[in-house]
Every structure is written in C-alpha cells, then in structure tokens.
Amino acid sequence: MNGPTAEGRKRGAAKRAGNGPAAEGRKLSRSFGWLAFLGTLLVIAGVVGLIYTGVATLTSMLLFGWLLLIGGLVALAHAIESRGTNYFWLGVVVAALNLAAGVVVIRHPEGTAEALTMFAALLFLTGGVFRLVGSVVVRGPQMGWTLLQGAFGLLLGLLVLFDWPHSSLYVLGVFFSLALLFDGLGLIAIGIGGRRIVSMVSDRLDDRGGDRLGGRESGHGAGRGAERLDAPGPATDSPPKAPGDGRK
C-alpha cells in the first residue's frame, strides 16, 4: 500500500497549522483590529466634541453623574455584604455620598459644570504658582521647562477664571474631547502596530513550517533512494553453476 503523497502531507500540515500558531495569530490580529476600530470611534467623538463644546460639557457631566450613581450602588452592595464588620458604617457613608452627588450632578449639570470649572481654574493657578516658585528656588537642570509649564498653567487658570461662569460652557467639554481624541489616537497606534507585529511573526512561523516540511520530504526521498540502492537484485530459480559443470 502506497504511503501518503506529498500533496496529502501538505494538506495535513496546513490543517495542523490552522489549529496552531496561525489560528492564534489570526485571533490576535482581529483583536488588534477591533482595538483600532474603537480608537477610531474615540477620535471621531473627540473631534465632534471639540466642535460642539457645550454638548460635550453637558455629556461629560451626565456621564460623571451616572458614574457616581453606579459607584454608590456598588459601594452600598459591598457594605451590605460586609455587615457586622468595623467598616460597615464607613461603606454606607461613602455609598450615600456617591449616590447624593450623582443625583445632584444629573439634576443640575450646568451648576456642576460651573463648580468644577472654578475648581479647575484654581487648580491651574496654584499649580502654576508652585512650579514658578519651585523652579526659581531649586534652579535645576530642567528650570526652563518648569518655568514654561508654570507660566502656562498660571495663564490658563487666569483665562478660565476671568471668563467664569461663561467658561464653564466649553472648558470641561474641551478637556473631555481632548482626552477622547488622544486616547483614540493611542488605541489606533496600538492596534496598527500590533497587527503588523502579529503579521510578521505569522510569516516567520509559516516560513519555518515550510522549511521543516521540505526537509522532511527530502529526507523521505533520500530514505527511499537508499532503500532502492540497498535492495537485492532479482532472484533466479536456477542455482549457481559450479566452475567445472561446463566441461566434458
């Protein structure tokens, strides 16, 4: 019975490769593709938010309120599970504060945006002043960059504060949109880079598999040739004649 042909061996190797590293590479490639797609959606949302900053501000406030509500519910469930311990009332208080803050933010998103904008302006002012004073006092090797960062933070805080409360309509929306935009660009870069790396690794694995298959086929061919060379010649029915049989 004849052994498997070269075509059959190739099909078997391809079938085994379909269940091995090649299949895992395809799964990873699809995962990185979905990551790049999510990054594209985030970039589109960030660009739209930069165009419609007022809508982005209200959206960010509503999302913030719902996150507080969900966090309060989770904290309350955790506190109920840990009743009888010393941390029960602390968990209840934290859950109640989160729930109350979430309700206030959802019911009054404009007022919440104004309060958070004022807090952001004061944060920029204090951060800029501390950077300026620290860079002048310390005089380190990065003094120039620290001075620039401090001046930028101080200027940004003054601009937001002088235009308050009108600045609350666009400041938080701009920050929220920029965060979406940069996060989306990062996800796109990770997705595209990951797909390239997976493709390179899969190509190298395919090349190694082809080299191994070719080596096995050449080894089988050499073995068959050796078998043919070592095989005895055709047997004859008559026994060998003695040297003196042909004489009279």
TrEMBL record:
Origin: domain of life: Bacteria
Residue span of region Disordered: 1-25, 209-248
UniProt keyword Transmembrane present: yes
Record field: transmembrane: 32-55, 61-80, 87-106, 118-138, 145-162, 168-192
Pfam families: DUF308
Keywords: Membrane, Transmembrane, Transmembrane helix
Residue ranges with Basic and acidic residues bias: 209-230
Entries under PANTHER family matching the protein: PROTEIN HDED
Protein name in the entry: HdeD family acid-resistance protein
Upper lineage: Bacteria, Bacillati, Actinomycetota, Actinomycetes, Kitasatosporales
